[in-house]
Amino acid sequence: MTASRLDAALQQENQTRPRSFSLGGLIRRRPETITFILLVAICVAVALINPAFLQPSTLIDIGRASVVMGLFALGVFIILAAGGIDVSFTAIAAFTMYSMTVVVQSHLPGLPIAVVLLMSMAGGALLGIINGLLVHHLNVPSLIVTIGTQYLFRGILLSFIGTVWIMSLPPQMGAFGRLPLVQFEAATGATITLPFYFLVLPIAAVLTWFILNRTLMGRAIFAVGGNANIASRLGYSLKTIHIFLFGYAGALAGLAGIIHVCANRQANPFDLVGTEVNVIAAVVLGGAKITGGTGTVLGTILGVLLVVVINSVLVMVGIPSTWQRLVVGIFILLAAAFFVTKQKNR
Amino acid sequence: MTDVMNAQQAGRPFLELRNIHKRFGGVHALRGIDLSLDRGEAYHLLGENGCGKSTVIKIMSGAHAPSEGEIVLDGKTHASLSPIQSLQAGIETVYQDLSLIPNLTVAENVALNEQLVSAGGRLARLFDRKRLRQTAEKALATVGLPGDRAFLNTVVSDLPLAARQLVAIARAIATRARLVIMDEPTTSLTRREVDNLIRVVERLRSENVAVLFVTHKLDECYRIGGQAVVFRDGQCVAKGPIDTYSKKELAELMTGRSIDSERYRTAKPGDEELFRLDRLAAPNVEPISLSLKKGEILGVTGLADSGRNELAMAITGVQPATSGTMTLAGRPLSVRRPGEAIEAGIGYVPEDRLAEGLFLDKSILENEIALVVTKLSNAFGIIDKRKGRALAAKLSEDMRLNTRDIDLPVGALSGGNQQRVLIGRWLSIAPKLLVLHGPTVGVDVGSKDTIYRAIQQLAEAGMGLIIVSDDLPELLQNADRVLVMNSGRVVASLDAESASEEDLYKAMLASHSETVQ
């Protein structure tokens, strides 16, 4: 050690270190602990009031409902981690899912489902890259750019591609939506199915975690979220990062869109758009700061589960579904207030 | 050994700038710079704020492209460099703002760039955590920081400023650097940390690395030795071994006018007592009693952890005192918040003017009237613009700002002028007592001169001043008395006219039990 000032500062840090074993310290280092505690608390409370909650069918419903929102949330999270924000992902998803359904239905009826999924991801990535290029070259905050492109993508979809609600899907898409991963009979005799597409979410989560934590690109994303000017001075190419970020989020949105279609067995061009805030809320509840540079994949997934659980179980305990927003809103404020106090206290 | 290598490579400097010009819009920041940097040599780039030093650094590190001229790097000619090109060639920069990424860990800040540079800036690469840790441990040990896992995983924004400065230096030497540029690397370091940095520089030079310093601290330049390069108005006005120039000559070269390094203090303090502390205690400050006369200038110094900062913060309500009393102009005061200090007539110019003092994107006008907006506004809260402008214009003139345009954002001014705006703001409330914390940190010679003259004028007008500073010549030149703090106590009170820097150092560094007379 070289200096007394430093010694003092580091000593101070040493003194605070034992404290970090406490709950407060844990929450400061891993804000998603709060999300986890909230999630468990709600599940316990609901299970006590209405034991039906613990039935496998409910849990599987929650899992199934998390897929589309989870994919969106992963995309939102990595853009948030880099200090940006995206509100166009639902428009990208609507655009790709509807166009893809139209293409498969009227031009390429025999296209294998794997190719359909890949093409949707590619289409989403392409639209995302448009976002990335605009953010980079216009040098405008990504919120503004993606508000613009949300209208743009949706406008093109509704004006040029179609407004007709497609009720009968191409058979391979319908089959993919029904393909079971796990299937068993409940006590009531009904068949309960965890669909195959559920697998997409854990795979996407692990991939996103890997990119963020094990590649230079991932570190670069957090560096840009910390301070973009400095990152560029240190040799990180902002253009590459912007294109990757929005391209990746776009691909996830494209995938989410097509899964949404397959799961619901219909393609409604007016779907999805309008749910952005719900997804952003989930990511923020997962501990990612809206100002960028922080957050984890685990937290994001927990945030999604929390919102999905609130949305699906309140009804089970007799709270009207109109209360969902109220509860989510209160939780966001509580969690945010909690994170802020934790930071002031250190 | 070094000499032999120097001789071998004597014909080819590591980096050469030829006739470099840089224009920003209508501003001609660099006007034909020729500069060549040899391996293993130390260079001191000197000059006033705004003379083009930072621009030249940014051209070398690839942040700016020159408007004209060429860069010869290792024998190859370039019109401009990209950041990654510059890093790959071994040019490492410690920026004045440190350029650390606040949300990443110490290890990542120190060693991530090594992996980025060896990947040629391509990001589709796995990130090697083991190599990251090893590189970071080695570099941290060199600058004297711990390399344990807990420290490596600390997020940089949780570190104190001095440690951050060392982390930034560790990053620069983590790779096989061939030229290390340091832009004011010692502003927040204590003497011992500076000593260690100087050892690091010597080691780099013995490893044939060129080092380029940008600093206002001439004493450190002399200790390091090497070549002086003096800039003025975007041109290089002198080059040569630094020990062939006296401080006075360097100051004159930088400013283009002769600068007095004599004592500024001219007037004598009055007889009437203005301010007194009776057993005032604060966190890190043992009970202190002192008295200040009208028109008196009191210097306070000590090491960073001596309690001098806490004393200043206790007087000004930034971090209130825990016990004891304060009396200003015969009235007892209780100062629990900065607002109460301002009302009582105590002004405070904080050390970190950028973080604590100024609204950088607001105009000079808005910054200067920030404390008096309520006085300038009518019952409906609407500000009397004409009065505000007149006041701001007068303050700017009093502080001799180098611009007449009071609508200019403060961020566009040089450090010295920013400091003048900040002091000008306090004059707007006509305080009885002004506490200045590091009034000339990061300020060039010419601006120091105006700031000192302004301080003397304030004292002549009867204001009491307390200057808390590391800069010992500054205190000796400006104050009547200098208090030295050590471990939260005042260990010496010296007459500024007869005391020497050595006297002050001795008291600052004395072990905690001794009391120096």
Question: How would you sum up this structure, described in words?
Answer:
With 346 residues, chain A is mostly helical. Chain A has a domain at 56-272. Chain A is 71% helix and 3% strand. Chain A is built from 15 helices and two strands. Chain A has helices at residues 4-19, 23-29, 32-49, 56-81, 89-106, 113-138, 142-161, 171-178, 200-214, 216-226, 228-233, 238-264, 276-285, 297-313, 324-345; strands at 180-185, 191-195. The longest helix of chain A has 27 residues, at 238-264. The relative contact order of chain A is 0.19. Chain B has a domain at 273-509: 3-Layer(aba) Sandwich (Rossmann fold), CATH 3.40.50.300. Helices cover 36% and strands 24% of the residues of chain B.
Strand order of the largest sheet of chain A: 1-2
Structural class of chain A: mainly alpha
Secondary structure: helix percent of chain A: over 70%
Placed side by side, the strands forming the largest sheet of chain B appear as: 6-7-8-3-9-10
User: Beta-strand level of the residues of chain A, as a percent range?
Assistant: under 5%
Rounded average pLDDT of chain B:
84
Largest sheet of chain B: 6 strands, mixed
Assembly level:
heterodimer
Shape of chain A: globular
Stretches with pLDDT under 50, minimum 5 residues of chain B: 1-8, 512-517
By DSSP, the count of extended strands of chain A is 2
CATH H-level name of the domain at 273-509 in chain B... which superfamily?
Answer: P-loop containing nucleotide triphosphate hydrolases
Gap from first CA to last CA of chain A: 24 Å
* Form type of chain B: globular
Order of helices and strands of chain A: HHHHHHHHEEHHHHHHH
- The number of helical elements of chain A comes to 15
Unreliable segments of chain A (pLDDT under 50, ≥5 consecutive)?
1-5, 11-20
Strand content of chain B: 15-25%
